[in-house]
């Protein structure tokens, strides 16, 4: 059941698509101190799920999180905000309920940090809708919430293949080389990503013609090898006379303005840049139409970046900084002075004050940016998503974003931002994924191997062994880091067998993804969602369910020869050997230590479930989604699996013919059957 | 066996105290490419132990470490250098041997990072002694190494009590309050630390008379409550006319100089400061004598800080920085320019070039600092340690340092630097401890609860549950972080029972510490050191042996209700309840999941071993070290324990009367006996 309450005059976020009536009675469960906070006293054993893209565990207790879209490359235990603003959580325990704050501003969630059992939510101002959701279980509450905010974005099937990225592949020849090396080494690949350097001096919707000559031909050439090129689009539009996007946006008044009405300019990758007013529906439409520049050249996938929006500096603040710096000259700086000096330059980027100096035109109202900060990246991606419906009505386009807010999940996925080549970020990838699913973000994944810092072969192997279950499966690394393409490492056979398993699992993974999107279900689930009566399952922070049939338990520590796995019930364990063969055995319910060398991996098939698998291939089109081998761990009696299958391109999602039921009778026990 | 080889003309480090003959034959095990690297091809299963104070696991494989004493507050997975330079490692596996580089300069250790199995050691220049050590086991090799570098520093017994610290307790009254709150809450305490603000404007060997009036009386007042005040001493000496330490050091020429012979000045806490030339034995003696200023006031413990040495900035570089900054004025800065601008200020502190601009006078030779960088903190602490032998010949003085190098372990302990309130740093604390023991650093500990960032009650509880086993047990937090004294939290009874357990364990912990120091043994050991034939034990990265009788398995993850424990053999598990009672049970060898609520903790007594315990107390002098209860898990037959016990103050360490043997016959099985 959904309980909706309104405080003040909320700025419309367009997050909720299913209307509920505003209630006037007391808000259930929580204590509302109007103008101050919304709070709840948790029991010791309560678990708090949700909050989407944030650091720390599946259970969010023990820290303070702040919904404020931030260009934050340091994903540390003490980080409060990442790129997304995801104000949905579920308290599970003494009382079980969901809570969603439909709000465009900054909000903090103290989840048992200040006091052990205090959950305290503090919005920056009191203009928002508060939703309380109840249901018979945590997944039921999530499903209710997901129904309220609308169907999640559906990616084309090819985007479930493996993608290789780097900041940046600088030329067409470098891209060709990446493809060639994968193909030569018998490593599957479906996409190569273009980071900022493919553009002409970081200008959106332009091409560096020298580095990427005859782009349309190049896109076609790659398409013939089943490779999709996926260019990046940045939020900032370069301020440069003669650059048509800039000139047209200026002429039409589609960029954000300062208080005095003059254009707001801030520096990002291209230097001085303009910020499209994505909250203005006309500007949104205009920006969305720009994607045609690349769609027309055969591009069918994009990633939107820098749309928190990131600001490196504003001219005003830089000027002020230079004045302040002059004040330090010639002094014997004691520590306080010295820190103050460092802070002058250190606070240039992402400065909160800058976000208070520009304005949007939204439904005829002029609104200061900080009031709607969390809607910015959302509406950039919405601009693209709405445009794709117009420009490509019959063909899905890949779209994922860095910044996000719930609501944006209908227009695109997200990647988990600029992580690092840290083992702890592999675990964070796992822990964040179900929280994102709760908030509607199904097409997600982290930069496998880690974006910043230098990876190691073992880390990349282990990360891929988790990443093959992620809808978005992309290896991405930053400039000046160690090369991270698989063929740069020693044990290519071990990588190959893991990558090929992804392609063998695709029928199942894609089917589960589609059902999760269409039926408002979870794709990645904490164990407790499926085993609510098992108190041990509730504490498991390093295993996940993937769809209805699989459980995974990745290795996320260096130099480990294996790991502990907790089984709430008996499961069939599969072991992938380095030669690509799969072995399996039945493990009883309970605790197990499983040896897992770095060149092997394991996963589990749940009792009473089926796993359809394909022969695999080196790209998605090579995978035969129709002739399947079904692995079974049937309970007593017969067991069936609802298999979703479509062409992966069109949008006839709800056609009942896309769903088939595979049934296996109960006399097979841990063996495969071909259907 | 010790194999010593000499390359070039090494600068004497005084690290090795037991001479070996220089050999001329080929270096065993490793490949030496003179002028380039020392390398070894590891087997897949080889484990590399050692390297002292570094990030990452007990097994150092999979990263590159650099011995270069660094003021590095970011202890991340991708950090290469912390505060210490500890060039000793042991390869265990296909071949087992120790390797030590006796060298004063920077050296990098690539331990299976660039290639999976390559161990590559690269010194900055080729003037060093290389030692290869062999023995019948890893602990035997460590013991041989420890014998070669001399007996570890021995702290006074009171320094095994709990210490409370903060940057900074600003007044005597604030210190009194800290003591009072502990005593009122029945929380044991033996020391309070004074961070930099107790001094008069950060001048070493001065007192802020306003904040700490009648200091001598204050020290005495606290001593009556069994509280020791432990002031900090910084490496930099404030440049200020009229300040006697500065003036005398200048007059005598005891400070480091620039190439032209003029004094080298760099800014640290007090602003412009001088750097005592600790490598000059006269200057070392002079600086050591300064500690008398505080010893004479009743102080009997110190911590040496900022002695990498940290440099905030040099005047020359700051001037250059301002010039560079001027060059950016008025420009439209594209990204590269902008990063360059940020780098101007970002590279002011700890700039490598600055370390090449000053000189030492060492044995009549003028040596540029970067050649002997890693000896600086070592010799600051040596200055203190040598002075204490002169000034306090009969009474031990507490001394621990931030920067260190092997050799310094004879003069003081170290704390594990400016860590953060991160769960991962609790695990790092555990993993680093045996590596430090290998290098001779026995009196060590991390800032419990974390120094930087904000702690949580659960993190502090779990960290203390590990920290009670650490010789140095100190709760320390940075300025501007959440108050971290135990009484600031909700569940004081849970903290109390953990803290009191420390005092009940003191007879054992102190005895094990003393035996480790006197017999060149490990205090904290990886499981593999004691169970070398157990391949599972070799991979355990989150359990340690503490002395000969105990094994610990701390909880180091948030919101965990328990953890997995691996037992190489049957052990007696003790569970501390929140009321302070101990329950125990026998666990069989193998894997166990153990429930451990945050207000409880567990530890294990090994089979065939004894655990002597005292009644406890709220300070070390209150603990009765003579009337003990001995817990036993006897194997068949009788079992004995060598109990080391002395007054904890004097230096008659080798008196055979300090060692008694406790014997329990085999008919008790998991029960206590009073001896």
UniProtKB/TrEMBL annotation, chains A, B:
Keyword Transmembrane in the entry? The reply is no
Identification of the protein by name? Alpha-glucosidase
Supply the Gene3D superfamilies for this chain: 2.60.40.4040, Glycosidases (3.20.20.80), glycosyl hydrolase (family 31) (2.60.40.1760)
A GO BP entry: carbohydrate metabolic process
- What are the GO MF terms of this UniProt record? carbohydrate binding; hydrolase activity, hydrolyzing O-glycosyl compounds
Please name the CDD domains in this protein's record.
GH31_glucosidase_II_MalA, GH31_N
All copies of the Glycoside hydrolase family 31 TIM barrel domain together span: 154-511
Q: Matching InterPro entries, A to Z?
A: Gal_mutarotase_sf_dom, GH, Glyco_hydro_31_AS, Glyco_hydro_31_C, Glyco_hydro_31_N_dom, Glyco_hydro_31_TIM
Q: Give the UniProt keywords, A-Z.
A: Glycosidase, Hydrolase
- Cytoplasm as UniProt keyword: no
Where is the Glycosyl hydrolase family 31 C-terminal domain positioned along the sequence?
Answer: 523-610
- State the family it belongs to: Belongs to the glycosyl hydrolase 31 family.
Please report the organism this UniProt entry assigns to the protein. Candidatus Limivivens intestinipullorum
A Pfam family of this chain: Gal_mutarotas_2
Domain Glycoside hydrolase family 31 N-terminal: from-to ranges: 38-110
